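Reproducibility note. Readers wishing to regenerate the assembly model reported in the main text can use the exact inputs given here. Chain order matters: entities are listed in the order in which they were concatenated for prediction.
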Amino acid sequence: MTTVFERLRGRRLTGVGTIGLIIVSIVIILAIVGPYISPHDPIQHHLKARYKPLGYTDENGIFLLGTDQLGRDILSRIIAGCRVSVIVSIFAVVIAGSIGVSYGLIAGFVGGWVDQIMMRIADALLSIPFIVLVVAISGVVGAGVFTLVLILGFTGWVTYARVTRGEVLVAKELDYVIAATVVGQSKIRIMFQHILPNVMSSAVVLAALQVGVTIIAESSLSFLGLGVQSPSVTWGLMLADGRASIGSAWWMTTFPGVAITIVVLGVVFLGDWMRDVLDPRLRGE
Amino acid sequence: MARYIVSRIGQMAITMFIVSLLVFFMIRLKGDPITIMAPPHFNADQVEALRRAWGFDKPLPEQYWVFITKAVTGDFGKSMSHSQPAMDLVIGRMKLTYLLAGVSAVIGILIAVPLGVLSALYRNSPLDVTVSLLASLGTAMPNFWLGLMLIIVFSVQLRWFPVFGAEGIRSIVLPAMCLGTGMAARLSRLTRSAMLDALRQDYMRTARSKGLNQTRVNVVHALRNALIPVITALGLQLGWLLGGSVIVESVFAWPGLGRLVIESIHVRDITVVQAAVFWYSLSFIMINLLVDLLYSVVDPRVKIE
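Running the prediction on these inputs yields the following structure tokens for the assembly.
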């Protein structure tokens, strides 16, 4: 990991990369200090102020983005949602990344029929559309933040495995790896000391991009009622709430979705920048 | 060609076998499936009776054997909420999902390919920048949110299209636009880079130096070659559509397979969930097989071993 950060540090940020960095920083800051700067308590009902539009003010203060069906302040809930999104996506990506990179490392390095079998299993898992898989497992195992993180982590690893395996196959042919084998270094040592650093940069870039995918997956599940549950606040749940009053209280549906889009956009921009910096080969141009 | 197809079908069988294992263990993640299936008011004796009736008291390998031998014949048990065999239900609903996915794919391709090609031809122009930005936006937006926004604008405010259901041509427009634009966002990027790659090739220079008409050159030489990686990616894109349709169907109450899966999960209809997951997997694999065959037809350099 040190090599990755060294290469990122001191690299010029592109315009798009800057936007990404700003957005991601804001989200992380909000996730940490959200509760302290929130204009209202996100789960506090204000039953006399239900379905109020933007800027509605009463003795409790101003509700900048309106209120929902229980009179809760939309803006405060959006800020509170940052926390869940950050936690779920980071943990899920770390779990998925660890499993996937290890899997790909072993498959690529050992090769032979072990590789074949491992990749077959990965392909089979990949043949089930991600959402279908996650929805089905949630249905069986039950909802909630903890199970959600586990589910997303244990289903999302396949892409990491594939990418890592590809990189390992390339790294195996490098001169110093062959030299290390000839010299007699143990296989495990070669794997961790020589091959892993080479594949880490791809894995890190993939992880950054997958954070966006995970956020969308989490919000989809919560929207369907299979993810984070009330009274926890997440943008997907807010969208589910907004659905019933879609004709009248449009602000309930609009703003959480805008939040998701902006955050994912920021993550993708940052990920793209990281990819361009770390491996010019991968650039789409 | 025939040998290739046979070998691919063999590979398919192996993959489906692994999928069957996944599905089998998936519903046993929380222990006995009966704990999920039994109505909450059942007492211990009733649960036990139900367990025996479904055969969940038998040893696991035996359970799997029963499961797989039945599955191969298409018997996934009966749905508990609808009184039909699970697989029949799945196949019935699948047609509507395929319809939605098909229309969305057409919309997606019609939007993405021209825009991708034009972006590449006029690289770094305002058009290119706009399209790239819209594509990024399209990938970042959750598709169910796009669906909800489309409903607000087109169904509620403008009243052009119905909010939900599958009555008549108009009801497919919004869900298909929702999925189609999402797919277009992803596909346009791919098309653009594929086209850029093709334009860089030596044969383009040759064609230009031969004095051929520029437009014709672009279309005949560059585009045709650019489409090859696009077609390869199509398999994955269609897979994305299948997944995306699950949520979009919920948003628009489109009575397809995705909606069935969500409903079944909420009422704990495990047999239907099993059958549906199986079917999605099979569909995805078949689509990829067809795309690979199409790919070999389009690119004469690819030999089918």
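We highlight two features of this model. Strands of chain A lie at 56-58, 61-63. Chain A touches chain B through 47 residues (CB under 8 Å).
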